[in-house]
């Protein structure tokens, strides 16, 4: 095939990008080379629109071993233990083919983690769907949940937490973000940097097929009416092979044979080989005839661009080939020496004794495009004037029941019951709490993780929203008694070529950066997913934040269920009555305008750290952060989980009852303490200048509000649990 | 007491079972499916997981593994064998216990705590357990036990039903059946009661910080009965 500008454009490259390739090579690329460039230079692999802004994020910290730039980030949790973790999107494939898209998303992120030598110990996910009324939503939800479960369950890695949201902006672009945590010994971490000349380059795992060709390019454009034609770009997952690959890799890693290892993810053999060569400042020579192929007559172009799953590329020490082969034979996996490292600093591909590609590595990596895209700053929307008379007519229990059964608040048990969340025998907090918690096997330590997004706040004001979602992650970890350590982010946005979408990205990233910096909660890994839009319709800006925290003594972990009758319930943090952009305003008053709640980073840090001290002193019986739906929703969930009631009282504030109970002011937590500890706890809160209100005492099974209105906890359970099950069984 | 846990390609509860057995005093060895023999053992366990990816019928490939010849001989000569979840599916495929395991009635993987009623205590597995009801944990996609009418009669006549799904008071009714299994069956014995296959995972219930502690009760009792 003759390569020209039109062929390059069909590969998703821009005119000037193609011109630059010709200039760098000082000739016209052949079709294989063009394929390689298009794979490396697309948005998904090159971060060309986001790099400039991502550089500004805080990525360092006392506990950070590895920040962004490797397969995953790594934090130190003491005693030579380290946690490897990352979140990644698989949005486009999941919309085209929900089961395989979601499954391979989970498979891909686990591979990123075990590539570094870590055994995966927990999976999480953040999934966003269109309006429940949209005709595609139900099938997409079912397919995605089956896919996530199908892969994770088979791998034997517990899925310990997640979040599911519905919003019509995802009607044409769902989001599937998968996160994995792995455990590794600090002195047994593996990296992707090749080193040494003439070292064997090894291919292991599944055979290469024609699936997923151009997957990364597909993820770098918007959808249109031809979406069905894109099905062949979706990879097909095989979790059984991945389980074997995991065990085989860990077995090989126990010795000292491996110099560098890299999984074949997006852009398959192309990006993995180039990544290793680039990091090691070396060249790589590959004989494509040696690559194990699933189908006959695959071309070099197809072999290089295939995104077949469950494959790894390894640079071995000389003379270790036999030893390595034995291990992969034992696990019935393909093993082939396909090339070697060279000093050429080029990627040189051979096929049928012919050189089919010859590209300097730096042209693909360092010389890849970087854009300073135009972006538009968002204005802070004006506050709404909510008429007090509108609120007077509302019955608080009716509103509460509506809020509890709202698709974004209701129980997601239908989903997480389909995920094995207890395998590996260390899950001490299962899904449905503020964060999932797994013990570090055989120790007193535990790791907490949660994943959060607040698209509505980010949409209303990206800078505030970006800060908020980091704070929310911080609060979720603290609520289970974990000290927040670091985060991974998955930045899901519309087209970077649209100034407003790009502005949302830039300002969300700025907000994330500011909050992460202030809270000493650095970003150690992540991924950007642009072009989440169908034709002109983009999603709400949706950065997902995966937070990881450490609990030194797992016996001190906190759960959110109310524990004991007569215990006292407080809310930490000040309630100002911020209703704009709250679930209440948007869904009950149908008011979609106004600014999101303000973030005060000093209060966030101070409130959170004070609560951690209270937890450490053993005063806290249960805790839960206040988020969607405000105080009364948070308290109700604690009632539901603990099957207890509460006498709830509004303190003598100037704001009215509805505002007090449904406002979404930030930096707040509900805590349960015993009567005898009340003075000690309030003294400590006062000493640290933390505002609190006393909300009431726990009773057997009824919710009273200011002694008047009431509901039984069973009624609340019904409101909270039925929506999703009913929706899915219709 | 010595035990062996067999690891098949795709087993993923093998380590959990190893941890549990050791916690309650077994000297456990992990055995590779491709070995011909396992060490001298008082108990052999086929653990949960997705042997061979469950790509054919669950358990069918693993039931033909090299090691299974020895396991079958051991079982036929009265050795104590336990198959959990995928291990139960493997046992069914070998014919050591009767019946088959179909896909769950609602076609969804299910992971949650369940109650099971002990139906027969005249055996090594449940002898001397005071409780009549245990809280166990299930995590499976194919746990819907099924057999023919004739088989069911034979199983019941021989008191081969080990445990049934029930509520916390031991009421074994349809509404407490998580997967559609016939007669709420969660686990069965062979005729001689030296082989137990069951869907629930007692190894996930061995610590107050986990889902519960009825697994501890089960393993403690098992090792005492073997002594």
Commentary on this structure:
The complex is a heterodimer of chains A (730) and B (227). Chain A is an alpha+beta fold and 730 residues long. In chain A, α7 packs parallel to α10, α19 (462-479) runs parallel beside α22 (601-616) and α23 (630-642) packs across α26 (713-729). The longest helix of chain A is centred in the C-terminal third of the chain and has 20 residues, at 499-518. Chain B is of the alpha/beta class and 227 residues long. Chain B has one domain: Rossmann fold (3-Layer(aba) Sandwich), CATH 3.40.50.880. Helices cover 23% and strands 26% of the residues of chain B. Chain B has 5 helices and 11 strands, in the order βαββαβαββββαβββα. Chain B has helices at residues 14-23, 66-76, 86-94, 149-157, 214-226; strands at residues 2-7, 27-32, 43-46, 80-84, 100-102, 110-118, 133-140, 144-146, 161-166, 185-189, 195-198. Chain B is globular, with a radius of gyration of 16 Å. The A-B interface holds A 146, 149-150, 153-156, 238-241, 243-244, 330-332, 416-428, 430, 439, 554-555 and B 9-10, 12-13, 15-16, 19-20, 34, 48-50, 52-55, 108-112, 137, 139, 141, 201, 203-204, 206-207, 209-211.
What structural keywords apply?
heterodimer; A: 730 residues; alpha+beta; 7-stranded mixed beta sheet; globular; B: 227 residues; alpha/beta; Rossmann fold; two-stranded antiparallel ribbon; 5 helices; 23% helix
What is the CATH class designation of chain B?
A: Alpha Beta
Termini Cα gap of chain A: 52 Å
Helical percentage of chain B? 10-25%
The helix content of chain A, as a percent range, equals 25-40%
Gyration radius of chain B, in Å: 16 Å
Q: In terms of topology, how is this protein built?
A:
The complex is a heterodimer of chains A (730) and B (227).
Chain A: H1 5-10, H2 15-25, H3 31-41, H4 43-46, H5 51-54, E1 64-66, E2 73-76, E3 81-89, H6 91-96, H7 98-114, E4 119-129, H8 137-155, E5 159-166, E6 175-185, E7 200-205, H9 215-218, H10 239-253, E8 258-263, H11 268-280, E9 283-287, H12 300-305, E10 311-316, H13 321-330, E11 334-342, E12 346-351, E13 354-360, H14 361-364, H15 388-392, H16 396-404, H17 413-416, E14 427-429, E15 436-439, E16 446-452, H18 455-460, H19 462-479, E17 483-492, H20 499-518, E18 523-529, E19 533-534, E20 537-538, E21 542-551, E22 568-572, H21 583-588, H22 601-616, E23 622-625, H23 630-642, E24 645-648, H24 657-662, E25 669-673, H25 678-687, E26 692-699, E27 702-705, E28 709-712, H26 713-729
Parallel strand pairs in A: 4-5, 9-12, 17-18, 24-27
Antiparallel strand pairs in A: 1-2, 2-3, 3-6, 4-6, 7-10, 7-11, 8-10, 9-11, 12-13, 14-15, 15-16, 16-21, 17-21, 19-20, 22-25, 22-26, 23-25, 24-26, 27-28
Chain B: E1 2-7, H1 14-23, E2 27-32, E3 43-46, H2 66-76, E4 80-84, H3 86-94, E5 100-102, E6 110-118, E7 133-140, E8 144-146, H4 149-157, E9 161-166, E10 185-189, E11 195-198, H5 214-226
Parallel strand pairs in B: 1-2, 1-3, 3-4, 4-11
Antiparallel strand pairs in B: 5-8, 6-7, 6-9, 9-10, 10-11
